[in-house]
Amino acid sequence: MNDLVVLTPWDLALAALLLIIPAAISIALKLGLEKRLGIASVRTVVQLAFIGVVLEWVFELNRWYYVVPVLLVMLLVAARAAIQRSERRFPGAYLAAFGSLVLASSVTAFSVTEVVIGVEPWYAPRYVIPLIGMLLGNGLNGISLGLDRLLNDLVQKRRAVEARLALGASSWQAIQPWMRDAVRSGMVPIINSMMIVGLVSLPGMMTGQILAGAAPINAVAYQILIMFMIAAATALGVIMLCLLCYKVLAHPEHRIRWERIVSND
Predict the structure, then answer these.
(1) Does residue 143 share a domain with residue 14?
(2) Which of 1, 48, 171, 254 is most buried (CB neighbours < 10 A)?
(3) Do 36 and 72 share a domain, yes or no?
(4) Phi/psi at 52 (nearest 5 deg)?
């Protein structure tokens, strides 16, 4: 079963006419979004066209030393995007985000490709690159939300944290409630997605497989696998980044290094 309709540049040009709708709404309501919409549209075309060419090349060569650099670039861009989305950061935040994403995506992706699916070879780009790409797309949102919540809460609740320290709490005990809130905040998007998937929304991967001619039940099976991977990767990534943030902010004498929390402006 493979009745995929191949899209031509002309088809995409026609689809681009749909952007007239949000642009017209932005102009009519004076939202000032038309310029950003235009830039985002151009970036979408350029970025996806570029990665399409790269993936064609990597799939054809099918060597690990071409796959790994592609994954590293994706990880670096995801780490940068995750920190930039947060209002505040701490010294070494970019490296911490990169490490968190590497751990979260590698553990979940390779446990699934090696144990569940049994991909051969381990670096098979047709499986590894799309799977890790989906993990990074969702994982960066999770760690960005978690970091943003943790640092903002600590700044806003500084008196409460200092009071707990003054009463004899360790630095870990003093900020523990806000660590829990940060992890919860980072996990909310994927949990919400899992609660409504199939009822309200049909995820992109499942929809893409169905459009490409795959049997719906097979597309559903892969989507279930992906949702579980994203949940695990997001949880791992958020927890690791919050712990690294704590290591940077906590003083050995049970004080908080407030000066290390800086604005992202």
Answers:
(1) no
(2) 171
(3) no
(4) -65, -45
Nearest-angstrom CA–CA distance, 101 and 79? 7
- Output the CA–CA distances (angstroms, integers) from residue 84 to 39, 94, 155, 241, 255, in the order listed: 18, 9, 18, 14, 27
Convert the pLDDT of each residue in 85-119 to its tens digit. 889 999 999 999 999 999 999 899 888 888 888 88
Give the residue ranges of the chain where pLDDT is below 70: 1-3
d(CA 157, CA 163): 10
3-state SS assignment for residue 262? strand
54 and 150 share one domain: no
Q: Taking a C-beta distance cutoff of 8 angstroms, is the pair 96, 151 a contact?
A: no
pLDDT in tens, 227-255: 899 999 999 999 999 999 999 999 988 88
* CB-CB contact of 188 with 145 (8 Å): yes
Q: Which two tokens stand for residue 248?
A: 């940077």
Q: Cα dihedral sign for 171, 176, 181, 183?
A: positive
**Cβ–Cβ < 8 Å for 5, 219:** no
| Structural domain boundaries enclosing 6 | 1-61
Q: Which letter does DSSP use for residue 62 in this model?
A: -
Strand partners, 87: none
Question: 3-class SS at 88?
Answer: strand
